[in-house]
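A protein record pairs a chain with a discrete description of its three-dimensional fold. The shape at a given residue is found from the number at the same position. Here is what such a record looks like in full:
>
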Amino acid sequence: MTYQERQTIRDPIRITGTAKADIRRYDGGLRHLRGAKSYQVVRACRARPDLQEGFGFTYNHAAMLAYWQGHFLLEYLSNPVSEHTGESHTLLARSRDGIHWNQPEVIFPQYWLTAEHYQGPKKELLPKEGKFCAVMHQRCGFYQTKGGKMLITGFYGISPEPHTAPNNGWGIGRVVREIYPDFTLSPVYFIYYNAVAGYDRGAADGFPYFEESGDEDFKAACRELLADKVMIQQWWEEQRLDKELFTQHGGQALCTYTDWAGKIVGVYKHGLCTVTEDGGESWTKPVRCLSLETSTGKVWGQRTSDGRYALVYNPSSDSMHRWPLAVVSGEDGHLFGDMLALTDEVAPCRYQGFAKNFGPQYMRGIVEGFSQSPDGDMWIAYSVNKEDIWITHAPVPLTGVQQGDFSEDFSKLEKGETDEIEGWNIYSPLWAPVRYAKRDGKTVLSLSDTDPYDRAKAERAIPEAQAGSLTFRVMAEAVGGAPMYIELQDRRGAAPMRITFSSDGMLRVKGNGVYHDIFPHALGTWYDLRVEYDCVSARYIFTAQREGETLFQKEFPFSQSVETVERVLFATKDSVNRQDLEANGKFCTIGDLPDSDTPSPLSRMLIGGMSAETKVRAGE
């Protein structure tokens, strides 16, 4: 038995295997989850609030997710610049397909109060006269009742200064609204006052108590939530002083799921795990699971539609650089393995602010017992750099490999959305969208890009092989200031060859570490490109055709030695991230990136189809 096994054999959760995420890389150097598709829901845009949510706030965080009445619902909190400061409020976005989202609307508005009733630390820092704004905080977002009603909740806390967190037990209380089937909202009510901190019905004005509502069904729904011990255990850190509500110690950012034996497993930050066998009436003492290596980011766990289990988290002890966002899976809810990168891209943090931890983080999926996604797949919402809000569609079963050869022609697709292309990974920012488009009446995959600090990406998993051939039909419709490119990669992202469509009008390939001019490419022209690769000889043959005519064919050496090839990447520009492990977003020292809200010249690549043929599989 290994040292790690001896240390973790009694842990409620154990991650098997010896592989570690290499956080020098945004995907951790991990194999990518096949078919994962990531869509940006909110792009912070200070200069153009109309393109965001009407406010231009640049701190956006703590995403919560639900699926109800045929729509995805996504809740998140938002501050003007920094964590725990400013005119904080909470917003709600809605989507039918998880790809196209409406402009978010404020659901819990700014809450202004005086310092009169505050009893917590640093009171001397609050204004002695006049009002200040409460700070939104929520660990529990949505609640779907047994009868199908949907409640949405949030918590108003107080931070006299940014280091005093609003979830320290001294906040005001929890608020609730009902979301009606037509997606209108009830008034805002308090559902639970933080009376032990000085905020009872007399002290917390602004919103009525839910029992004052004239809607009996709404009141019954609120009472059902208050009686749900598992759900309200998530409230512990915000209302930890209430010994009647909580008779036992809790932790930060609880997530729960039911294991194979019917026990409810709870996971907190820092890899702390707990179990309840009586519906939340009592919990085992939280145990730190040593193999669940994570820090101050959240962990999400759930049972997947194939009867297995998944954990999503940042597998790193570096709290300031929360990447990669990884997923592990297992059969019983306790033993997990096969770590895969759920996301593989991290755009730079464009706006500085206090406690702007970098990377994809604070993820949440659809809570167990709620209406699940119609496709049976995992959907995970999260923030990136505490700035932008994203969602990732993770197909079930979870796998990192392509099993067989394939030939795809996008013109034959019918649905007209990127989720239809089952084997492709998509990275789609709002200013660099990856979408289906029509050209000459045929469906194509379009990668457009006007984002100065991000890019569009489409990646196709292929059978892991030492030798094979790939053919793709592509068009450069517009090339902005940076070359668009296609490259073969191994499981860690090493690229033995690359093809570029450059802004100077030249098609180039990279071989032996050098870019070679092939011919001037014509914008708006389809090219059929073929790469025959051999990892043993470390060489490839590149062929370019137009309308059946061979324009070029030549053999080139690899630019990087790889043992096998297992994916192909299409991107609108090279990596744009300027922040590495030495950059720190906590103390407002990174500065705002210049012109981040000014669109860059358009680049657009179209993909008409692709085929992969294996000659020598891995290990043969």
In short: Helices lie at 3-8, 216-227, 229-232. The two ends are 31 Å apart (CA to CA). DSSP finds three helices and 38 strands in the chain. The first helix runs from residue 3 to 8.
